[in-house]
Each structure stands twice: as C-alpha cells, then as structure tokens.
Amino acid sequence: DTAVSQTPKYLVTQMGNDKSIKCEQNLGHDTMYWYKQDSKKFLKIMFSYNNKELIINETVPNRFSPKSPDKAHLNLHINSLELGDSAVYFCASSEYSEKLFFGSGTQLSVL
Amino acid sequence: GENVEQHPSTLSVQEGDSAVIKCTYSDSASNYFPWYKQELGKGPQLIIDIRSNVGEKKDQRIAVTLNKTAKHFSLHITETQPEDSAVYFCAATPQNTGTASKLTFGTGTRLQVTL
C-alpha cells in the first residue's frame, strides 16, 4: 500500500539507449512531478503535471518526456541517454497544495 | 526566480545535543517554508512546515523559526537521536499556488548524530 511507487529502483544502461521509469500514486492526488537529484544531493524539479497543464523546467533537455496515461500515473521516458543523465530520479505527488509526497527513487547509471 | 541557500552542508552532533540548520531565501513573495528529511535510500519526507503568518512552529523535538524581515528560517532539533541522522532540505515557495511546481529546495544538510 505504498503511497507513491516507482519502478525500477535501479537502472543501469548504456549511453545512447532509451529507457523509461514508471510512477504510480494511490493517494488520489491531482498533480504529479519528476525531480532529479544529482550526486551532490541537489534536488531540481523537471516536470509538474496535472490533467490540465504540463509545466516543464526549461533546463530539461527535450530527450526527457513525461507521459501520463491517467491521473494516477506519470512515467518518464528518456531518449539517447548520456553520461550526465546519471542521477536519482524521484517521482512525487501533491493534492492542491505545496506538500509533496515522494517515491523512493530510481537510481539511473549510464555507462 | 527564488534562490535558497542552506548551511551548513554537513553537521555532526553527539546524541542528546541540539542541531540547527539555517536557510536564507531571496524572493520576498515566498511565504511557505517546508523542511524535508531524506534517509538513506529513500525519498524526501515532509517533517515540518511554516507559513509566513507564523514566527515559530514546534512538533515534539523539532521546531522551525522564520524571520521574514531578514528572509531566513531555521530548523531546530533538540535531544538528537541516531535516527535523526539523514539529509535535511529546506525549501521555499509562494503559497496557495495549488501546486509545488514553484518550490525551490536548498542544497541539503547531512546531519550525523554520533553516540
């Protein structure tokens, strides 16, 4: 009964590959997010998404694309992976507020 | 945009001592200030928050203070325990936006509580 769950927990892949990370929340929240945490633990928002609006952080390369099949899911697709994409990616959700509920993270390693 | 600075980056205290983490922000429009705790291998978890109409808020051993004039806010942990060891993040955003898309995080403080 995990509130925000994301899979896989670890993802190791080669440069140039395309990969996806899945996220599901069972909290009934209206907004979902993707965050990137680099090796120095710095948290930076990549996307926020609800049924009405997708907000993209302008610094995110267009190789990254969020896809939301329904309100409870927000997947992250990454094309042509680069070494610099290695990080921990967190999915999160919120309900009409600024309070975030995070998943446990996906550690992506690009070799 | 908002810029949040957090100090110190690492903090080591003995069990039972107090720990203080400080943050400053730049945008005077910010008026909601949450603190998140991230344990090893887990996602950040909200532990306490404060809004601009309040100067201090306490929850058991945790307290947060806010000085809007000086644009800084602090997290205070008293009687620290080994399970308090984690990375702590402050954040700031304008409130009542209905979303966390404008939430800006500090750079994190790694707190280690030693026996």
Write up this protein.
The complex is a heterodimer of chains A (111) and B (115). Chain A is mainly beta. Chain A is 0% helix and 54% strand. Chain A has no helices and 11 strands. In chain A, a hairpin with a 4-residue loop joins strand 5 and strand 6. With 115 residues, chain B is an all-beta fold. Chain B is built from no helices and 11 strands. The mean pLDDT of chain B is 94. In chain B, strands 2, 4, 5, 9, 10 and 11 form a 6-stranded mixed sheet that branches.
Cα-to-Cα separation, first versus last residue of chain B: 41 Å
Helix content of chain B: under 10%
User: Judging from the principal axes of the Cα atoms, what is the shape of chain B?
Assistant: globular
**Which geometry of chain A do the CA atoms define?**
globular
In terms of DSSP E residues, the strand content of chain A is over 45%
Looking at how many chains there are and whether they match, the oligomeric state comes to heterodimer
Write the H/E string of chain B, N to C. Answer: EEEEEEEEEEE
Q: Which structural class do you get from the secondary structure elements of chain B?
A: mainly beta
Span between N and C termini of chain A? 34 Å
User: How many E-type strands of chain A?
Assistant: 11
**How big is the Rg of chain A?**
13 Å
Main β sheet profile of chain A: 7 strands, mixed
Proportion of helical residues of chain A: under 10%
Could you tell me the mean pLDDT of chain B? Answer: 94
Radius of gyration of chain B: 14 Å
